[in-house]
TrEMBL record:
Domain of life: Bacteria
EC number(s) from the headed UniProt entry: 3.4.11.2
Protein's recorded name: Aminopeptidase N
Segments for region (Disordered): 24-49
Amino acid sequence: MKYSLLGVLGLVLACQLEAPAQAVKSGKPAATKANTHKKTSPASEPVSAAPAPATLVVPSWLPPTNPVQPAATIVHDLLDTKLDVRFDWNRQWVLGTATLTLRPHFYPQNQLVLDAKGFDIKNVRLVTGNKEKNLNYAYDKKKITITLDQSYSRTETFQVRIQYTAKPNDLEAGGSAAIIQDKGLYFINPSGADKTKPRQIWTQGETEGSSCWFPTIDKPNQRMTQEISLTVEESLKTLSNGLLVSSKKNSDGTRTDTWKQSLPHAPYLAMLAVGNFAVVNDTWRGKTVDYYVDPQYASTAKAIFGNTPQMLDFFSKKLGVDFPWEKYSQVAVHDFVSGAMENTTAVTFEQSLVQFTARELPDVGYDPESTVAHELFHHWFGDYVTTESWANLPLNESFADYSELLWAEHKYGADAAALVQQEKMSRYLDEAQSKREPLIRYHYASHEDMFDRHSYDKGGRVLHMLRKYVGDDAFFTALNRYLTQNKFSTSEVAKLRMAFEETTGEDLMWFFDQWFLQRGHPELKVTHSFANGQVSLRVQQLQDSTFSPIYRLPVTVTTWVNNQATDHQIVVTKADQTFRLNSSQRPNLVKFDSEAQLLAQIEEERSQDELLFQFSHARNYLQKYEAIDLLRSKNADLAVSGMLRNALSDNFWAVRLAAVQALRRYKGAEGNAVRKELQRVASTDKKSQVRAVALTTLSAFTNENYSANYTAALSDSSYHVVSAAIQALAKVPAADSRERVTALQETTSHEVLSALSAYYALNGSSIEQYQWFLRRMPDVSKIDLYQAYLPNFATFMLRIPPVERDKGIQRLESLARTDPNDYVRLGAYKGLSILSSNMPTLKATMQDIRNKEKDEQVKAYYALMQ
């Protein structure tokens, strides 16, 4: 499972919308100071606990007490599922027949309970050979309780066949930040009335959504083989798990495709997709690798998915376990409720993450490729070996998250991997301001709560520390042992620990306890001094040890004397600890956690000279970035500005990007030279993200006019750069650029549409622009509607006569009341709020919208806006 953009935004909102008793901290933690490290010999010092405070102060991030959530009791083993389904597009129903093969897990059973949400049940029958017998059952719209014809022992299998109609749209929608709805099966544009998107059907099973469209035991500790027959219009293509074993044309103009998976997997991984897809073919070691996309994106599908065969090869070799499944397909669908989902052999993606035109491709960066890697790695961690309960979800998601770093490291090098490390660390630390949970959580209110930045980003960073601690050989040998011992079965964190202990011979309970089973992270203050041929390095753990542990931290400290580096392996085990490191003279630099390994917030004392030395002698991207970030406030200093100008030519684009950002509003003596360098970067840098940020940085020099640079950038090949140029011109509109900007009105780029909305919000006032806002609104992505377009539309309407605003206000009100997407409703409400500053009568409308809103998270956000 991968978060969508909306899901990421939802996590931000979730952090803001904690219960009133949990005060939300403001400000962003120093994520860039939280680096990571390596260790060669474990310390034997005992962990010392800091004394508890006299008065217990409960931190804002401490979650409420929730009930214990054990793994589901296995009463029956679900062995096989056969489905025969067709669809009523008009009523958005699934017409199905399910044949399930089961046996009692251990104890004799004369009753079977299945999950089935919101069905109409026609009949339930026992199947014995060619004979069927009606069975009595009770149904409460959530579970079918079936009375079997006899008591079956654990050596006896039996089959039940259920005819049913599933009505997922009648279900009350739930969900989480990662999976924003949980109806299981979705009809997209079923009537075909919306000309902006195709007709599609697709499913999303995680966590317990499969039982919204077929009866099953909807728990992750079940495993089944399956066969799904899909009857659809002959013009449509289908996809499901496993191989297409037959395709038969029917006399009524339909076609029945049968997909069979012979290897067992969990019910939540079952999927189907129906639509007018283009299928782009690829292969790996004789296995089919296909990419299903909208037809207009067929020519660029391989640019996004084309590294899949290389990934299959890399992960198979790295893990020592060949990709075990029959095929590997990836499908892009519209309005998907998550970023992507690892359905076995048939991964589903939200189309906006992976479908791009040739012109958009240079701007997309690593994100689509990282998502492809993430979902593929799940086919070992999640599909091949599955978490036994949602409490152990990090056994799926932490590994998938870490695969993004592994692939970046393999394909693009150490700097690219370090950038992944930095971004993931920052996301976890952002969430940790308002929420800190153990990675493995047996206490939660809902299993949906597990899908957070702990299970993903923190878990991936913990795996990185484990890899650095035991070394690459032991790390991947232990993963091979774990996968081999637990293949086609379920697992819990103890099994992972045991695999590492059996591999290394070391008791690793200390590591798994502090990182997997306890909440929080280290908050370190590091200082150093030099005297008598020794560096005194003081490390203080400042986290609240009442609620978080005092950590054992194997870490590398590097001292630099002249140009010679010396690595010192230390193990921090106490709340306040001083280490003595030999050095022939005062070092130019003492760098704690020099391999950027620790998951921690680190405040490390260094002088300006030390940071300048750190940049020029940096071993990795994170050391360069940290020096730039910590010196950016001193950019007027000649030595610092010289470092930043040097960084503008760095080989790694993220270093150049950081330097461009650090030169924002530069007021030093090298002003002309700095601005010329920024102009050069804005026009010639190889990376579109760097060119775009350079334009934004230039626009911050309010006493200078760079409209010629902005106007020239309107012709850039990158939409990202064009958008930045429009945003800059919005602040300093040039007469000779207005026509150029207006000529972009019919763009197909969501990003450019958002930038145009900002331009018109500050400079527009004509009725033609008003009509443009209304006309292009359906073409803007949901996230852009929330973040920019709808608020900008409202700001624009303040510039036109009140008598002409009615249509726009009605559109905003309608979206705020009725749009199915939470973020569109929020964006529309934000727009009404902007208008209410000049139109007090709108306050009653906004109050009515708040009163009638059903989503508690959205209502809480409205409250924050008051």
